[in-house]
Write a structure and sequence with these properties.
mainly alpha
Length: 417
């Protein structure tokens, strides 16, 4: 009986150990389950790096959204921003290709017109030296020279109308601004949580650039000879304007009363010096271009009429002189790219207008908490004007002293242009 109980005790104890061991065995793998959780993120980063998207796709796109986070709205805005980014990249390619094409136009048309004008001028000079006995030869030279002068007149009038060098500068500016917009969208995608407002803002900027720098020549081409220089505007106009804040300025969001005073003084310098100077230079370039654009076809037309007249040698001499002047004028206008110079001044005037409006619209926001951070905004303005922060503050001091003393400031706001 005792042996039977002992055997039962051994059997029961051994079976209980086996059951206990069987139950406790599944606890061991739990130690090895926690480290592999990092592998999906590492894998996604490796795939993104391999396809070149590590700089544009945020690393937290595939993470699980937190409670209360509008993941669906953010993902939709992200997808729309990528679609806009693709359109911007396509715009950059289009403006680059068309800019190269129009640069070729400027070179080929100028060379062709000059060759025709100089050939006709040479014929006119030769015909002036031929005596009256060579009637057939003289008639042939006169007809050929007149035809070349008439052809040069038509081509030069067309070239002066479209101003290829100015068109090329428009495409250069559009390419640079679309690249700048693309970088802004990439930065927003990388470091921010884009919303539908960001998508709408990006769309408005793309459409504003399309309107400011159109690609077609017929119908929507920018006016090449306006009455006065008007600064280029490539940013969307604000739909409403905030009332100017006249209360006490609190030291919130990096803004202080001194910083507001500094920004207002910078705006005054831009208005009194930079914008005024570039508009003055742009209007001068516009007047010179108008005179040259009218003089070239007029001179070639006079040369054609002189060769077609029956004044003999005097008509040929007059035609030769007019043709030589016409060639000089067209070379100075299109070889010197006077239209491009005017467009450069117009674009620079637009840049200063943009800086001025961005500062004024920021200061007009009454709630300083809704403004961009003051220190960051000050740094951006300083970089746009090619200055350090200390130089920007020194410029504001000079502007304030000049207004108090009633003397003109002797320094421009920008050191880039």
């Amino acid at each position: 009986m005792a042996s039977l109980q002992a055997s039962n005790f051994i059997v029961s104890s051994s079976s209980s150990k086996q059951i206990h061991a069987a139950i406790s065995v599944p606890k061991l793998p739990r130690i090895r389950l926690s480290p592999p959780k990092l592998q999906p993120k590492m894998l996604s980063e490796e795939v993104n790096t391999r396809h070149g998207f590590i700089n544009t796709v945020p690393k937290d796109v595939h993470r699980t959204p937190l409670v209360g986070e509008t993941s669906s709205v953010s993902m939709a805005a992200l997808q729309q921003l990528y679609a806009i980014l693709e359109a911007v990249a396509d715009r950059v390619e289009m403006h680059q290709n068309i800019g190269e094409q129009r640069d070729n136009w400027n070179t080929l048309l100028l060379n062709s017109i000059n060759m025709m004008t100089l050939t006709a001028t040479t014929m006119a000079g030769v015909s002036a030296t031929i005596g009256g006995g060579a009637g057939a030869s003289l008639l042939g030279l006169k007809l050929a020279s007149t035809a070349l002068f008439l052809s040069a007149t038509g081509m030069l009038a067309l070239m002066n109308k479209i101003q290829p060098s100015q068109l090329v500068e428009e495409q250069r500016n559009a390419t640079r601004l679309f690249k700048q917009l693309g970088n802004q969208i990439k930065t927003l995608v990388d470091v921010g949580s884009p919303t539908q407002d960001d998508v709408n803002d990006a769309m408005e900027k793309v459409l504003a650039l399309d309107k400011a720098y159109p690609l077609p020549l017929l119908g929507v081409m920018l006016e090449k000879f306006p009455e006065n220089l008007q600064p280029a505007v490539w940013w969307p106009m604000p739909t409403h304007k905030e009332k100017q804040f006249k209360g006490e300025v609190k030291s919130d969001n990096g803004w202080t009363k001194e910083l507001e005073m500094e920004m207002r003084q910078v705006v005054e310098v831009i208005k009194r010096k930079d914008s005024e100077d570039y508009e003055r230079l742009g209007n001068k370039a516009l007047k010179i271009n108008k005179v040259l654009a009218k003089s070239g076809p007029l001179l070639t037309g006079i040369a054609a009429l002189a060769m077609g007249s029956s004044n003999g040698a005097w008509g040929a001499i007059m035609a030769a002189g007019a043709g030589a002047l016409a060639s000089t004028v067209s070379t100075f206008e299109h070889g010197g790219q006077v239209g491009m110079v005017f467009e450069m001044y117009r674009n620079n005037a637009g840049f200063f207008k943009l800086v001025q409006e961005s500062i004024e619209s920021t200061l007009d926001e009454s709630d300083v908490g809704r403004r961009e951070n003051g220190e960051l905004f000050e740094m951006k303005v300083a970089l746009q004007l090619g200055r350090s922060i200390s130089e920007l503050r020194e410029l504001a001091k000079k502007s304030r002293y000049s207004r108090v003393e009633g003397t003109p400031i002797d320094e421009f706001a920008s050191k880039l242009f």
